[in-house]
Amino acid sequence: KQEVTQIPAALSVPEGENLVLNCSFTDSAIYNLQWFRQDPGKGLTSLLLIQSSQREQTSGRLNASLDKSSGRSTLYIAASQPGDSATYLCAVVAGFNKFYFGSGTKLNVKP
Amino acid sequence: SQTIHQWPATLVQPVGSPLSLECTVEGTSNPNLYWYRQAAGRGLQLLFYSVGIGQISSEVPQNLSASRPQDRQFILSSKKLLLSDSGFYLCAWSVQAGSYNEQFFGPGTRLTVL
């Protein structure tokens, strides 16, 4: 069974710092990996999707990488801002449209 | 553009009462639909998913059921709520094109069972 782990569980950084969030998965037979952001009491917002044939995707200050062979993905956030404070979740897609989620990294960016 | 709606936004129900949560998607056809539950401070638990009308797959044995009466409508139900059913319920949709399969979430329903 696919298991997804996110480290660290929580992270607090000063504004302006570059940071990396980690996601690991146990079964490399995935179709896609998707990163989400969740604000308190809200639904999930899709940030980036990396297909299994891709190595990375970029959107603004966000860059996500994927190494299928090692079962790892990272989300890089450049020049962090207080508005980036949220919980970040990764999910891998494996057969029959099933998404497996990590438990998330709660990010706090201090002004 | 595609939009996903969930209602109600919040719900407080007594133990033993029935439940019906509704999710509808606009702007897409034949989506895959999902129900998740998120307990406080925890990750998402997949409850049900559906690849078409009347087709429901259950992931976890529980006090809940799901139905898909129309292509873009997904309903989560219970005949008798338990305290453990409290949580944040999220509906999601995805459309698969080859190996590309991106998921989009609704705003969620906060359910408190007292």
Provide a compact summary of the structure.
The complex is a heterodimer of chains A (111) and B (114). Chain A contains no helices and 11 strands. By secondary structure, chain A is mainly β.
Describe the protein in words.
The complex is a heterodimer of chains A (111) and B (114). Chain A is built from no helices and eleven strands. Chain A has 111 residues and is an all-beta fold. In chain A, the strands form two sheets. In chain A, strands 2, 4, 5, 9, 10 and 11 form a six-stranded mixed sheet that branches. In chain A, strands 1-3-8-7-6 form a five-stranded antiparallel sheet, with no helix packed on it. Chain A is globular and about 40 Å long. The termini of chain A are far apart. By secondary structure, chain B is mostly beta strands. Helices cover 0% and strands 62% of the residues of chain B. Chain B has strands at residues 3-7, 10-13, 19-26, 32-38, 44-52, 55-58, 65-70, 73-78, 87-97, 100-105, 109-113. In chain B, the strands form two sheets. In chain B, strands 2, 4, 5, 6, 9, 10 and 11 form a seven-stranded mixed sheet that branches. In chain B, strands 1-3-8-7 form a four-stranded antiparallel sheet, with no helix packed on it. The termini of chain B are far apart. The model of chain B has no long low-confidence stretch (mean pLDDT 92). The interface between A and B is medium-sized, with 24 and 25 residues.
H/E topology pattern of chain A: EEEEEEEEEEE
What does the largest sheet of chain A look like?
Answer: 6 strands, mixed
Most strands sheet of chain B? 7 strands, mixed
In round numbers, the mean pLDDT of chain A is: 94
What is the overall shape of chain A?
A: globular
The topology string of helices and strands of chain B comes to EEEEEEEEEEE
Structural class of chain B: mainly beta
The portion of residues assigned to helices of chain B is under 10%
Oligomer: heterodimer
Report the total helices of chain A. 0
Strand content range of chain A:
over 45%
